[in-house]
Amino acid sequence: MRVAIVTVGDELLAGDTVNTNAAWLGERLTERGVGVERVVTLPDRVGDIARVVNEYRAEYDAVLVTGGLGPTHDDLTMDGVAAAFGREVVESEEALEWLAEAGGYTADDLAEGTADIPRGARMLKNPEGVAPGCVIGSVYVLPGVPAEMKAMFETVAEEFSGEVEHVASVVADEPESALIDRIDELRDRFDVTVGSYPGDSVRVKIQGGEAEAEAAAAWLRERVDLKETGE
After folding, report:
1. Is domain 2-159 given the CATH code 3.40.980.10 in the classification?
2. pLDDT by residue (tens digit) across 154-211?
3. Cβ(191)–Cβ(213) under 8 Å?
4. φ/ψ of residue 117, rounded to 5
5. What is d(CA 47, CA 49) in angstroms, rounded to the nearest whole number?
6. HSE of 10 in the Cβ direction (CA atoms, 13 Å)?
7. What are the residue ranges spanned by the domains of the chain?
8. Orientation of helix 46-59 relative to helix 77-84, angle to 10°
9. What is the Cα–Cα distance from 107 to 133, expressed in whole angstroms?
10. Is the model's pLDDT at 12 over the cut of 90?
C-alpha cells in the first residue's frame, strides 16, 4: 500500500508549530508495512488543498490529510477536500448525533460549521476532541491537534496494511562518506534497501526479509569500525 501525507496549516510553514504529525504518521504507517511516498505541507488555502488532494488521490492508494478542521476562519481543509471531489460541505447528522451522545452537545451549543463534512463522506469520530474527521474515497481527513489526530488515526489504523519488512541496524564509527564503497557492495550482494543516517556516528538501516537483512547486517559489521556502546 502506497500513501501520501498532507499536513495543512500556515503555522507549520511559518515554523510557529513543529510538524510532529507527519513524523508520527510516517512511523505508524511504516510499522504497518505501508509505504509513505510523499509528505507535503500546505497553507490554509482551499485551492491548494483541492489541487494536491486531487493529484495525490489519483496516484496513491490513500491520502491522509491533517489539520484545519473545525469552525474557525482558517479551518479550510474540509472545503478543500470537498472541492477535490466536486462536492459541497454539509452538516452531518451522524456527527451531530455523536456529539450529542459523546459530549452532551446540542446543535445550539456548537459553532456553525463544527459538524460539516463533504457530502457523502464517512464521518470519523474524534475521541479526544469535538471536530469530526471523515473519509471520502481514499482520502482520510484527520485533525491537526496531535492528541486528536493520533486518537482518530487509531480508529482507522486497520485500514492501512502492507508487507512489514524486517529492520536491522549497524552503527558505524566512521564518516558517512567513507562507507560508500561498502554500502554499494552490500546493495550488490543482498536483496535489501539501505539508508544511512549520520550524527555522532552513522546508523545504517537495512530493510528486507528477516534472514536477508540480518545476513547483510552481519556482513557489514565485519567490515566497518563499530561504534562502542559504552556498556
Report:
1. yes
2. 999 999 999 888 999 999 999 999 999 999 999 999 999 999 999 999 999 999 999 9
3. no
4. -140, 165
5. 5
6. 7
7. 2-159, 166-221
8. 50
9. 18
10. yes
